[in-house]
C-alpha cells in the first residue's frame, strides 16, 4: 500500500497572524485595552470610547494625543513594531504598558480597521484602511487633532473563534470592567464611554492630578461615596503606596471591588489582597469584605511585568516586603483615622529591611481569604450540607404525616416563630414557619412563574445598585423574568415592574445584594451562575412574605402546612436547615417519667 508522504508547508503571514490573534486578541475588551493603552502612550488628556453591540460590531477610540507622523502610519500595524524598546535591556526598565508588538498587527488580521491621525507637527491628517484585501494606501483626511481608530466586525474571518464570544451585554460588561481600572489610575484623563449611541460615563479630568495618583473624586465617581474612604499613604525604600480603603463600617458580604495597580498597571495579586485584609484584621468581622483601591509604585528592577501574556500578574523580587508594607500601610491608616488621638506606626523596620533579606522571618503565604474553613459568608450558609442537620435528624419521607388517615386535631403558633401541629394519632410536629415558607417558595421558583401568582406594580419600584451589578442584571433579565421578577434598566437604575405575590413586602435591593454575595466577584458569579442556580433561588426564597417573628392566623398556618406537605422535599429549608421536628406522645411521657 502506497502511503503519500506528508508535505511540510510554511504558513503564510496572514495565517500566522490569525493564530496569534487567538492568543493576543481574546475578545472585544482585548482590542479596547490595546487601543486605550496606545492613546495613553500618545499623551492624550481626553479619550472617547464608542462601543456598539458589545464591541462585536464596532469599537471606536478617539484621543487628543500627539498623533502619528505620516511616514509611520503605514507601518504602525506591522508585526514587532513598537516605540517602547530598542533592545532587550529596555525590558528591565519598561514603566508603561509593557511590550505589545504583536497586538496591533493581530487586530488587523481578524477585523476591519480604519485609522485616522494628525501628528502634532503636521498641517494635515492622514488615514489608512485594513480589510480582507489588505492594507490601503495612506490618504489625506480631515481631522483636527489626535488619533481615531475604528475596529469593525471582530473575528469576521474566523467564524470558529467568533462563535465563542458571549452575548453583546456580557462583552460590554468585560469592557466596562477593564475600563474601570483606567478610570481610577488616570484621573488626569477625561474619559467618555458611549454604548450604542448613549453616553454611559463622562468623567472630566481631575485638575492638578497626575497619572497614578488615585483621586478621591474619581474613586467616588466610580465606586460611589457610601464607603467613607480613608486615604492610604506610605513612602520608603523605593516603594510608594497610595490609594483609598473603605471605612470598616461599610463592610458587607457582597463582593468587594478591589483594584490593585503596580506602576500604573492593573494587576491581580492574591498576596496583596490578603495583606490588605490582614491590615483590617482588628477592625473587620471575619469573612466580611470592603472596597479598596491600592496603587504601588516600585523600582522597576524589583518587579517583572512580563510574566503574564495579558500583563495581569507581576512577579516581585521580594514579595514578603511588598505584602508587609501594604499590611502596615492599611493598619496605620485605620489606627490613625479611627482612634481618638493620632497614633504613629514605626515603619523603620520595613524601610531598613526592604533592600536586603533578613533572616528568621516567617514565610508570607498568599491564600484565598474568601474560602477559609472558618468563613461565615452567605455562600457558606447556602451549602446543602448534612453537617447542618447533625443535631436534628431529618425526617424520612414515609414519616411525613399529612394524609387522610392522620388528621390534624389542633394547630397553633408559639413565639411567633414555630407552628405546633397536633395529630389525632398522638404525634406532635413543630414547624419552623420561615423555613417552611422558604421551602414552599423555593420549589415554586424551581417550577418557574407558571406556578406563581404575579403582581404588577402600579408604579415601578426604583432600585439603585452598583454599576457592575446593574450591568450583570441587564444580562440576566430572562432568568429573573422566568421567576416572575420583571425589571427594566433605565439610566443605570433598575425599575422593578412585577414580582410573585410571595414577595409583596420583600426588599429587592437586599435580594439582589445577597445574590451578589454568593461569589467573591461579579466575574466568578457570571462563570458559575448556572451552577449556583439553586443557591440563587434559595437566596430569593429567604425574602418571602412569611418571616420569623410574624404572627399567623390559623388559616394561614394550615395553608402553609398543606403546601409544605406537597413539596418534593418538605424536611428542610433550601439552605439545609430542618423545617420540621417530630415528637410522639410516648417521648413526651418519657421525659415526665409518666407510664400511664
Helix and strand topology:
Layout: H1 13-24, H2 28-41, E1 46-52, E2 58-63, H3 70-73, H4 103-110, E3 112-118, E4 125-131, E5 134-135, E6 139-141, E7 146-152, H5 159-162, H6 168-185, E8 190-195, E9 198-203, H7 216-223, E10 230-236, E11 239-245, E12 258-262, E13 265-267, H8 270-279, E14 292-298, E15 303-304, E16 315-316, H9 319-338, H10 348-353, H11 378-381, E17 408-414, E18 418-423, E19 427-432, H12 433-447, E20 454-463, H13 467-475, H14 477-481, E21 486-490, E22 493-500, H15 508-516, H16 522-527, H17 533-541, H18 554-565, E23 580-584, H19 585-591
Parallel strand pairs: 1-8, 12-14
Antiparallel strand pairs: 1-2, 2-7, 3-4, 3-7, 4-5, 4-6, 8-9, 10-11, 11-14, 12-13, 15-16, 17-18, 18-19, 19-23, 20-22, 21-22
Helix pairs in contact: 1-4, 2-6, 6-13, 8-9, 12-17, 12-18, 15-17
Provide a descriptive summary of the structure in words.
With 596 residues, the chain is of the alpha+beta class. The protein has three domains: 13-203, 2-Layer Sandwich (Heat Shock Protein 90); 216-371, Ribosomal Protein S5, domain 2 (2-Layer Sandwich); 386-585, Ribosomal Protein S8, Chain: A, domain 1 (2-Layer Sandwich), CATH 3.30.1370.100. The strands form five sheets. Strands 1, 2, 3, 4, 5, 6, 7, 8 and 9 form a nine-stranded mixed β-sheet that branches. It has a five-stranded mixed β-sheet with strand order 10-11-14-12-13. Strands 17-18-19-23 form a four-stranded antiparallel β-sheet. Helix 1 (13-24) packs across helix 4 (103-110). The longest helix has 20 residues, at 319-338. It is elongated.
Amino acid at each position: 500500500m502506497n502511503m503519500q508522504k506528508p508535505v511540510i508547508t510554511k504558513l503564510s503571514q496572514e495565517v500566522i497572524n490569525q493564530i496569534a490573534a487567538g492568543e493576543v486578541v481574546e475578545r472585544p475588551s482585548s482590542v479596547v485595552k490595546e487601543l486605550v493603552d496606545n492613546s495613553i502612550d500618545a499623551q492624550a488628556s481626553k479619550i472617547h470610547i464608542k462601543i456598539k453591540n458589545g464591541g462585536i460590531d464596532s469599537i471606536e477610540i478617539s484621543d487628543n494625543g500627539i498623533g502619528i507622523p505620516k511616514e509611520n502610519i503605514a507601518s504602525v500595524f506591522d508585526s514587532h513594531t513598537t516605540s517602547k524598546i530598542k533592545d532587550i535591556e529596555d525590558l528591565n526598565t519598561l514603566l508603561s504598558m509593557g511590550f505589545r508588538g504583536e497586538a496591533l498587527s493581530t487586530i488587523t488580521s481578524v477585523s476591519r480597521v480604519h485609522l485616522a491621525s494628525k501628528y502634532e507637527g503636521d498641517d494635515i491628517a492622514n488615514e489608512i484602511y485594513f480589510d480582507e484585501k489588505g492594507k490601503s494606501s495612506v490618504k489625506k483626511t480631515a481631522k483636527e487633532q489626535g488619533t481615531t481608530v475604528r475596529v469593525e466586525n471582530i473575528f469576521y474571518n474566523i467564524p470558529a473563534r467568533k462563535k465563542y464570544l458571549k452575548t453583546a451585554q456580557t462583552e460590554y460588561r468585560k469592557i466596562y470592567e477593564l475600563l474601570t481600572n483606567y478610570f481610577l489610575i488616570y484621573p488626569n484623563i477625561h474619559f467618555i464611554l458611549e454604548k450604542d449611541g448613549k453616553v454611559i460615563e463622562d468623567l472630566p479630568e481631575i485638575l492638578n492630578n497626575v497619572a497614578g495618583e488615585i483621586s478621591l473624586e474619581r474613586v467616588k465617581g466610580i465606586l460611589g461615596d457610601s464607603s467613607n474612604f480613608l486615604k492610604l499613604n506610605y513612602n520608603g525604600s523605593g516603594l510608594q503606596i497610595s490609594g483609598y480603603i473603605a471605612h470598616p463600617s461599610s463592610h458587607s458580604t457582597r463582593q468587594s471591588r478591589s483594584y490593585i495597580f503596580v506602576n500604573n498597571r492593573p494587576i491581580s495579586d492574591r498576596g496583596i489582597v490578603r495583606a490588605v485584609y490582614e491590615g483590617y484584621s482588628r477592625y473587620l468581622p471575619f469573612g466580611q469584605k470592603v472596597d479598596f483601591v491600592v496603587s504601588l509604585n516600585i523600582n522597576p528592577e524589583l518587579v517583572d511585568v512580563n510574566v503574564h501574556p495579558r500583563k495581569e500578574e507581576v512577579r516581585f523580587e521580594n514579595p514578603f516586603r511588598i505584602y508587609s508594607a501594604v499590611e502596615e500601610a492599611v493598619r496605620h491608616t485605620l489606627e490613625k483615622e479611627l482612634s481618638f488621638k493620632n497614633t504613629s506606626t514605626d515603619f523603620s523596620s520595613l524601610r531598613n529591611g526592604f533592600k536586603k533579606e533578613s533572616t528568621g522571618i516567617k514565610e508570607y503565604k498568599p491564600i484565598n481569604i474568601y474560602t477559609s474553613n472558618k468563613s461565615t459568608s452567605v455562600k457558606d450558609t447556602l451549602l446543602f450540607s448534612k453537617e447542618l442537620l447533625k443535631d436534628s435528624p431529618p425526617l424520612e419521607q414515609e414519616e411525613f404525616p399529612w394524609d387522610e388517615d392522620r388528621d390534624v386535631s389542633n394547630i397553633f403558633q408559639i413565639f411567633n416563630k414555630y407552628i405546633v401541629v397536633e395529630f389525632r394519632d398522638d404525634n406532635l410536629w413543630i414547624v419552623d414557619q420561615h423555613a417552611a415558607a422558604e421551602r414552599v417558595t423555593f420549589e415554586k421558583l424551581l417550577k418557574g412563574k407558571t406556578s406563581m401568582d404575579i403582581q404588577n406594580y402600579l408604579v415601578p419600584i426604583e432600585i439603585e445598585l452598583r454599576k457592575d451589578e446593574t450591568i450583570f442584571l441587564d444580562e440576566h433579565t430572562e432568568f429573573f423574568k422566568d421567576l416572575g421578577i420583571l425589571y427594566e434598566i433605565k439610566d443605570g437604575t433598575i425599575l422593578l415592574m412585577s414580582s410573585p405575590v410571595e414577595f409583596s413586602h420583600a426588599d429587592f435591593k437586599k435580594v439582589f445584594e445577597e445574590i451578589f454575595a454568593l461569589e467573591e466577584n461579579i466575574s466568578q458569579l457570571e462563570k458559575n451562575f448556572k451552577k449556583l442556580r439553586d443557591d440563587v433561588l434559595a437566596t430569593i426564597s429567604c425574602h418571602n412574605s412569611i418571616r420569623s417573628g410574624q404572627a399567623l392566623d390559623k388559616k394561614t398556618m394550615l395553608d402553609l402546612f398543606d403546601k409544605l406537605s406537597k413539596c418534593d422535599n418538605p424536611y428542610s429549608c433550601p439552605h439545609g436547615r430542618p423545617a420540621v421536628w417530630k415528637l410522639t406522645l410516648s417521648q413526651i411521657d418519657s421525659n415526665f417519667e409518666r407510664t400511664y
